[in-house]
Design a protein that fits this description.
10 strands, 4-stranded antiparallel beta sheet, 6-stranded mixed beta sheet, globular, Rossmann fold, alpha/beta
Length: 235
């Protein structure tokens, strides 16, 4: 599903260059649930953004379903995301001038070939327990409600790959559990590949594999509950 080779991201900071990612090699199988862990500044969110095509690497290769995405233009990347990729932002990224229902409907309307987008939007909002909030704007919703709208939006086009950046990080435990269950149900029912950046051990232990980053490098790959987890010299 995903093949990453020698992925490097360098940013200029004043008079020097800072390597955010350093030669990342990573494979993700179709239908796998992968957690990416690591301390703040380790490059987790940068890696996820590159996989989604929101930014370009300094060098290296990213293939999704065998298609090299690093050379695609913005229109081609938008088409790729509409066809097969959903993204859950830590900061929600809802459009403030659209209602909850309109935010969920938007990606289906942009894609243009999905039937009854408003009906599906209402079904998704009902699934996340927000059917009574469909006509509310983001400013009228709590943080947990906004995250659930963002999750419904990410599911709207039935993606084969869903990337999530700290999807439970800003939520209370009950809302976080609901979001977690929805993510895993998408994987179980539709075979959706999940790549999740998280600090939440409750989420990580339900995944198939954990990759740990530190200082822009992969320093460990573990099965959940593995006794070797935490030994960052083991890859």
């Amino acid at each position: 599903m995903i093949e990453v080779q020698n992925l490097t991201k360098t940013l200029s900071s004043g008079t020097r260059d800072v390597e955010i990612l350093r030669g990342i090699d990573l494979s993700v199988r179709r239908g796998e649930v992968l957690a990416i862990e690591g301390p703040s500044g380790s490059g987790k969110s940068t890696l996820l953004g590159l996989l989604a095509g929101f930014d370009s690497p300094t060098k290296g290769s990213i293939k999704i379903d065998g298609e090299e995405i690093t050379g695609l233009d913005e229109d081609q990347l938008a088409l790729l995301r509409g066809r097969k990729l959903g993204f859950v932002f830590q900061s929600y990224n809802l459009l403030p001038t659209l209602t909850a229902e309109e935010n969920v409907t938007l990606p289906m309307e942009l894609r243009g070939d999905l039937p009854k987008p408003q009906e599906r939007a209402r079904e998704l909002l009902c699934a996340v327990g927000l059917e009574s909030r469909a006509s509310h704007y983001p400013a009228q919703l709590s943080g947990g409600e906004q995250q659930r709208v963002a999750l419904a939006r990410a599911f709207a086009c039935s993606p084969s790959l869903l990337l999530a950046d700290e999807p439970t990080g800003n939520l209370d435990s009950s809302t976080g559990n609901l979001v977690l269950e929805m993510l895993l149900e998408l994987n179980r029912s539709q075979g959706t590949t999940l790549v999740i950046v998280t600090h939440d051990p409750a989420l990580s232990r339900l995944t198939d594999r954990i990759v740990r980053l530190r200082d822009g490098r992969i320093v460990g790959e573990y099965a959940p509950g593995s006794p070797s987890r935490g030994n960052e010299n083991e890859v």
